[in-house]
C-alpha cells in the first residue's frame, strides 16, 4: 500500500514539474520584460518620438486640410498663387485697357494731324498764278480780238511778273503758239489742262513736273494782244475750254 502511495506521489510530482517550470519561465519573461522596459525609458521616448513623427508624416497626407499644417501651408501657397494670378490678370487687363486708350488717342491725334495736313495740302494744292493782277476779260465774252467768244480769263499785270503754276502737274507743251504767243500747258494731277499764254519768257520744258506755286514763266505780250497780260485757259482732259473762274472757284481760287 505504502509502495503504491509512493508511486502515485512520484507520478504527481512528475506531472506537476513542467507546470512549475513553465510558471518559473513565465515569471522570468515577465520580469525580464519589466527589466527591459525599466532599463529603456530613454529608448522608449525615442521610439515614441519617432512613432509620433512617423504618424504625423503619414497623417500629413491623409488629414483634411483644415487640420493638416502642411496642407494648410500648401493651401496658403495655392491661395497666394491664385491671388497673385488674379492680380496679374487684373494688372494685365488694366495695362491692356491703358494701351488701347493710348492707341485710340494716338489714332485720334493721327487722324486730326492727317485731316489738318490734308486741309493744308488742299489749300497748298491750288494757288493763284499771279500775286497781283487786274481782270480785264472774263470767259465767254465776245470781242473783235477773238475769232469766237473769249476762251479764257485775262489777268493784266506788268511785263515780267512771275507766273506760277496753279497746281501740281506735268508740263505738256512749252513754246510759241501763234495768237497765244509763248504758251505753257500744264496738266494738273486732277486732269485739267491749264494754258498760260502771251508769256515774255518760259521757264519750264515739256515733260517737267511742277508743283503748285512753282514759277513757270513771266507775264508778257507775245501773240495777239493789246498789252501785257496772262491769258489763263482751262481745258478739262485736254477738251473744250471751260470758265476758269467757276472751275477754279471750286478749288478755292477767287478771281
Ligand atoms: Zn485772253
UniProtKB/TrEMBL annotation:
Do the record's keywords include Hydrolase?
yes
Show the GO MF annotations. metalloendopeptidase activity
Q: Which InterPro entries match?
A: Cell_wall_metabolism_enzyme, Dup_hybrid_motif, M23ase_b-sheet_dom
Ranges for the region named Disordered are: 59-92
Which keywords are on file for this protein? Hydrolase
Q: Does the keyword Hydrolase apply?
A: yes
Give residue ranges for domain M23ase beta-sheet core: 149-244
User: Where is this chain compositionally biased, Basic and acidic residues type?
Assistant: 74-91
Q: What is this protein called?
A: Murein DD-endopeptidase MepM/ murein hydrolase activator NlpD
Amino acid at each position: 500500500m505504502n509502495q503504491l502511495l509512493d508511486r502515485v506521489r512520484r507520478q504527481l510530482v512528475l506531472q506537476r514539474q513542467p507546470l512549475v517550470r513553465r510558471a518559473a519561465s513565465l515569471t522570468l519573461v515577465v520580469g525580464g520584460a519589466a527589466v527591459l522596459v525599466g532599463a529603456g525609458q530613454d529608448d522608449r521616448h525615442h521610439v515614441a518620438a519617432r512613432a509620433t513623427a512617423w504618424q504625423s508624416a503619414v497623417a500629413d497626407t491623409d488629414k483634411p486640410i483644415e487640420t493638416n499644417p502642411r496642407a494648410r501651408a500648401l493651401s496658403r501657397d495655392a491661395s497666394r498663387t491664385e491671388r497673385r494670378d488674379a492680380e496679374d490678370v487684373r494688372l494685365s487687363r488694366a495695362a491692356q485697357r491703358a494701351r488701347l486708350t493710348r492707341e485710340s488717342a494716338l489714332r485720334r491725334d493721327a487722324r486730326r494731324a492727317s485731316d489738318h495736313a490734308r486741309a493744308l495740302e488742299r489749300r497748298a494744292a491750288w494757288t493763284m498764278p499771279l500775286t497781283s493782277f487786274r481782270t480785264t476779260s472774263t470767259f465767254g465774252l465776245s470781242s473783235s480780238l477773238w475769232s469766237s467768244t473769249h476762251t479764257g480769263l485775262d489777268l493784266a499785270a506788268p511785263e515780267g511778273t512771275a507766273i506760277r503754276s496753279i497746281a501740281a502737274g506735268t508740263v505738256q507743251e512749252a513754246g510759241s503758239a501763234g495768237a497765244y504767243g509763248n504758251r505753257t500747258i500744264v496738266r494738273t494731277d486732277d486732269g485739267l489742262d491749264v494754258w498760260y499764254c502771251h508769256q515774255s519768257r518760259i521757264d519750264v520744258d515739256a515733260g517737267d513736273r511742277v508743283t503748285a506755286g512753282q514759277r513757270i514763266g513771266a507775264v508778257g505780250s507775245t501773240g495777239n494782244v493789246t498789252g501785257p497780260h496772262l491769258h489763263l485757259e482751262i481745258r478739262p482732259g485736254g477738251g473744250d475750254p471751260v470758265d476758269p473762274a467757276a472751275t477754279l472757284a471750286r478749288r478755292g481760287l477767287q478771281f
